[in-house]
TrEMBL record:
It comes from Diplocarpon rosae. Residues 387-409 are annotated as: Disordered. It is found in: Membrane. The keyword Transmembrane helix applies. One of its GO terms (cellular component) is plasma membrane. It holds the Pfam family GPR_Gpa2_C. This is G-protein coupled receptors family 2 profile 2 domain-containing protein.
Length: 409
């Protein structure tokens, strides 16, 4: 049986030392993720003490919260290394081996799916300015966990006691179930890795294109202002980047903020790929008959055990942006805008030729000028629009896109 299931009895010295390192990183990740989960859960329940609005309504925040739950299970699996060290052997099938194999499987798969979910949500929020309704979002979260449980539980149900056995330096899917390894694990890991990278690459180029268009509009606006000065301030009406703000979000929207928001989200999939790709590549190499040395899996396992602490550090470094804004989501709250506020908003537009007033419809493009399209949504109540048009006011108001807090006229 030892040869069939890869039992190590007794543990070789290098494996024992590798298990100690994996166990330490797993313990650190477990403590950090559990502590953060408890803190965040408390903040979600008692949000009135800390925030103006419930942070549970922030979809990106909830996605990262679920990623932490997945990381916690993954980190917990490597703590079992201390049990194997105390026994001076790695054996299975056994209860401890089953628990470790289960936690590794659901932790790996679910963390990959949540990273892909974060990437997909960011893509639709920034590029298409669309998010799920709250009810649909909750259903999607439940379905994602259900799918993760299905991928983890279907193997043990069908194969009984021999599914999770020693596989290298820890317990995982029996090597004789190569098809199950591929379809229940590797396939979804590579989908998550490749899908996240492709998604964020698309986001990067999409934002660059939109920001370039916005820059062109502003340059054209400045040129039009210099050539139309003699015709008076009310002869030409235009469209440009317009910033809408409320009392809940008073910070200015800028190109740097848009790109920085995207960078906040991109670190999660890149960290995931960096930490999980070595182990996945090693397993695939083993499947094609070129298994790496056992020391390789010890290093790869240590990287996997580090996922929790790395994601905690990433969350702590981006938490302000995550709490203050939901990327790509429009505010669910109805805001009553006064006439003075509307005038102040209109005063932030540049003058361009080719637009005219159309009665109750306000300012619209002339038939000869194509309508600009596209809106880059940055937060619940702050957005930049190429369709925004306004009536130019005083010349000094044209110098800045940031709404002034002073008295308006």
């Amino acid at each position: 049986m030892a040869q069939e299931f890869g039992i190590l009895d007794p543990l070789p010295l290098n494996v024992r030392n590798g298990m100690i390192v994996m166990g330490v990183f797993g313990l650190v990740s477990t403590i950090s993720t559990l502590s953060l989960i408890i803190l965040v859960t408390y903040r979600m329940v008692c949000w009135r003490k800390y925030y103006d609005h419930p942070i549970a309504s922030n979809q990106v925040f909830i996605l990262i919260y679920n990623l932490l739950l997945a990381d916690f299970q993954q980190a917990l699996s490597f703590i079992i290394s201390f049990y194997w060290i105390s026994q001076n052997k790695l054996e299975g099938p056994s209860t401890a081996c089953f628990i470790q194999g289960w936690l590794i499987q659901i932790g790996d798969v679910s963390s990959g799916l949540w990273v892909l979910a974060i990437a997909t949500h960011t893509f639709f929020g920034l590029v298409y300015q669309r998010t799920l309704r709250h009810r649909d979002f909750v259903v999607a979260v439940l379905l994602l966990w259900t799918f993760s449980l299905l991928l983890t539980g279907i193997g043990p149900i069908l194969s009984k006691d021999e599914f999770f056995v020693p596989a290298g330096a820890w317990c995982w899917i029996n090597e004789k179930y190569e098809a199950e390894r591929l379809y229940l694990h590797y396939l979804w890991i590579f989908i998550a890795q490749l899908g996240s990278l492709v998604t964020y690459t698309s986001i990067f180029f999409s934002l660059r294109s939109r920001l370039a268009t916005s820059s062109t509009l502003q340059n054209t606006a400045l040129s039009s202002m210099s050539t139309d000065t003699s015709t008076g301030p009310h002869k030409s009406i235009s469209t440009t980047t317009t910033i809408m703000s409320t009392s809940h979000n008073t910070f200015a929207v800028s190109r740097n903020r848009i790109m920085r928001t995207a960078r906040y989200m991109v670190v999660y999939p890149f960290a995931y790929v960096f930490l999980t790709l070595p182990l996945a590549a090693g397993r695939i190499a083993s499947m094609v008959g070129r298994p790496p040395p056992l020391a390789f899996f010890l290093v790869a396992g240590t990287l996997m055990a580090s996922c929790g602490i790395i994601d905690v550090m990433l969350y702590l470094s981006t938490r302000k942006a995550l709490v203050r804004s939901s990327v790509g989501a429009r505010s669910p709250f109805k805001i009553q805008t006064s006439e003075a506020t509307r005038k102040e908003t209109r005063s932030q537009s540049f003058a361009l030729k080719g637009f005219h007033e159309d009665g109750d419809h306000g300012v619209v493009p002339s038939p000869s000028v194509p309508r600009s399209s596209g809106t880059i949504v940055v937060s619940k109540s702050i957005f930049m629009s190429a369709d925004s048009v306004g009536r130019p006011c005083r010349s000094d108001s044209r110098r800045s896109l940031v709404p002034k807090t002073g008295k308006t006229t």
